[in-house]
Amino acid sequence: MARTNVTAPVPKSDPLRFDALVVGAGFSGLYQLLCLRDRLGLSVKVLEAGAGVGGTWYWNRYPGARCDSESHSYCYSFSEELWREWEWSEKYPGPPEIMRYLNHVADKFDLKRDIRFNTKVESAHYDEKENVWRVATHTGDTYTTQFLITAVGCLSTANVPDIPGLETFQGKWYHTGHWPHEGVDFRGKRVGQVGTGSTGIQAAPVIAETAKHLTVFQRTANYSVPARNGPLTAEFKQWIKDNAEEIRNTMHAAVNGHPFLLSETLALSVSPDEREAIYEKAWETGGLRFRGAFRDLVTSNEANATAVAFLKRKIREIVKDPATAEKLANIDHPYAAKRPPIDTDYFETFNRDNVDLVDIRADPIERITPAGIRTKSGADYPLDILVFATGFDGMTGSLLKMDIRGRDDLALKEAWAAGPRNYIGLQVAGFPNMFMVTGPGSPSVLCNMPVAIEQHVEWITDCIAHLRSEGLTRIEPKEEAVESWIAQVNAAANATVLPQAKHSWYLGANIPGKPRVFMPYAGGMAHYRKICADVAARNYEGFTLT
Ligand code: NA7
Asked: Is the C-beta atom of 228 inside 6 A of ligand 1?
């Protein structure tokens, strides 16, 4: 990628005028700032709602929170020096360690001086006459910028369900995505947890350790594979340092950007006994590597059914009470069709005396009362603390929360009324010079995020460098290119089992009224990387450059 200065920064007569404005200071925003400021020499400002760097990790400090990518792959790979000097302590680090890493990166590259914290972007309007974006914040400032880059993350707008009576609840309630930084003391408390996605599956075992009683309210039963977390050995840490290139190449060749490749074996090409042995080994290895046990687990329903049978059997073996085991194993979707959680003692938690499971698909929550939760059957669950592990308005929520308007005052909300539409996941027709990092239409959440982020940030940086070196000032996609990309996104999804999970945030199904569209690009990160590189190599085919 381009690493030299191609233009001088604009004169700083207006302190709120920049070449590029980046929204968000998580993994994406930090690297985007570094690339545009230090490699291209642009004037750049990052606007961040939180009081510090970290993005999703800044907000998600709930009990049990951990990364589900292996730590040595959940980091930047652009700097050999950074790679060698940083040491992860565990296989799956939690927010404090990831925050330390991101602060280390921000300090090492002197990024914080160009980030304005505690600043929420409220609107971004394109001014066609001047070819600039005007970006207004909640503090009353209006910034002007040529390039607008949204680095807002895919899972940052918390979904607090609209359950009648919440305002009458006499206890305390929290959403895992906005966890108090000082923590929550569960000792002696009756806790209710709504939600059994990746977050709920991580939180329940830790809450149960100190709470007097925990009631888990489950709407959709979920698979989970043991994470098998643990400290990294000195030998492994050295191996990471010495094999940076190889690890990076593997991540770039892998379908999902993880540091391992899928098996070449098809699930039904081996005997039942062999298959069982492979699944047992994958279960022992744990983590997302389980998904790589066979090459066709997410592309063939028959192959997937073998994983489903294995994982449901594991639940029934672990959970001692047969009625609870049945509720937990009553899973309605193929394995990995929803983001597959990994856990530490999730199913084991239901063997504790202080933990109960309530199936709210069979007996839905009717309302929240001052004393707790009441279900349709009239059952009352008295609670002191209510934890919503109910996920996010994923992928589009944080973009649509801002009032983004492109050419002719077209609101992004309107342009996306029937679901997100863009070209190669990077740009929307009618919204010139606006780029999205890991937005819908790109592999994003189906991928180990830092790999997807580095690819997008570097592509955007190269694109802006190209525009400036060619004396061009504007780029936006052609409508027919968008149309063709949407067809490719749909075709890629339909070639997998992923759209078969009806209750999935990949489809927007968790948010009432949200259009049901499969949002991420499921054709694989390696393939996607090539598509983006080819588009750039063919002089930004599908875009109009002026
Ligand atoms: P998820 O995966 O969206 O899970 C949210 C959970 O909350 C899931 O079990 C939902 O059930 C449940 N939920 C959502 N709304 C309700 C209402 N109204 N009533 C009852 N239950 C509800 O979010 P997570 O935070 O766990 O994980 C998000 C990502 O973060 C994850 O994929 C990783 O990438 C990291 P449902 O399945 O919708 O029936």
From this structure: no
